[in-house]
Write a structure and sequence with these properties.
The chain has 238 residues and is α/β, with parallel strands linked by helices. The chain is built from seven helices and 15 strands.
């Protein structure tokens, strides 16, 4: 869910945007405010992803610089104004992802939401690359053919080492990623995945059976090396 707030001195704009957000499933409108001070006070301790704000607040009010209470994660901004000449001044500011001329149509606002979604996805991907263990919720980003793909951890059956790459296998398809099995396994949540062989890491919840030196996942048998016995939840199995 993407948390949004509205910052404008115009009651009609607040009303129109409030009605608009009520029909968008993945955006949660936290509140509407008439001043920067009111907004910051009301949203202390809350996770704000984007602010739809009048241009005067962003440029003359220096809104993006003032919002220090949010720490390292400062909200993105969609700027609104009746005069398009504000656009250039606004786009020079870090954090501004779009500019909307008032009055606007629903189609144009939906385009703004798409830009916000895309920017937030890129930010998440960047943080995932910088620190793999800071994965968001139940998914991870992997780089496939120069594209960052969001992959649900619940989809992963096992990971196989293939020379300088790893093959991430899911029920529907496989992904070839430039990485080592050791590094990628270390980036996964502890307890949910385990190394079963020098060439394989498996999802614990997807293991259907263990027999001798093999592990069965979705009718696929993978080698299970005794070397890793003491490092996994099945250490007592003979």
């Amino acid at each position: 869910m993407i948390n949004a707030v509205i910052l404008t001195s115009e009651p009609l704009t607040r009303s129109i945007l409030s009605n608009f957000f009520s029909s968008v499933a993945d955006f949660n409108l936290i509140g509407t405010y008439e001043s920067i001070a009111e907004m910051i006070t009301a949203t202390q301790g809350k996770d704000v992803d984007v602010v739809f704000a009048d241009a005067a607040f962003v440029v003359q009010g220096n809104m993006l610089s003032i919002m220090n209470p949010y720490g390292d994660k400062k909200p993105l901004a969609v700027v609104m104004a009746k005069d398009a000449t504000w656009a250039l001044r606004c786009f020079e500011l870090t954090g501004v992802v779009d500019y909307v001329v008032k009055p606007s149509t629903a189609e144009r606002l939906f385009l703004s939401l798409s830009k916000v979604r895309m920017q937030l996805t890129l930010i998440e991907a960047y943080h995932a690359m910088e620190n793999p263990r800071s994965m968001v919720s139940d998914y991870i980003f992997v780089k496939v053919n120069k594209k960052m793909i969001r992959l649900s951890l619940d989809e992963i059956l096992y990971i196989e080492s293939v020379k300088d790459y790893i093959k991430i296998v899911t029920e529907k398809k496989s992904y070839l990623v430039y990485n080592t099995l050791t590094n990628f396994t270390a980036s996964l949540p502890e307890g949910k995945f385990m190394r079963i062989h020098r060439s394989y890491t498996a999802s614990v919840s997807k293991i259907d059976a263990i027999e001798g030196n093999t592990v069965e996942i979705m009718n696929v048998r993978l080698p299970f090396t005794k070397k890793y016995m003491s490092e996994n939840p099945f250490a007592g199995i003979k």
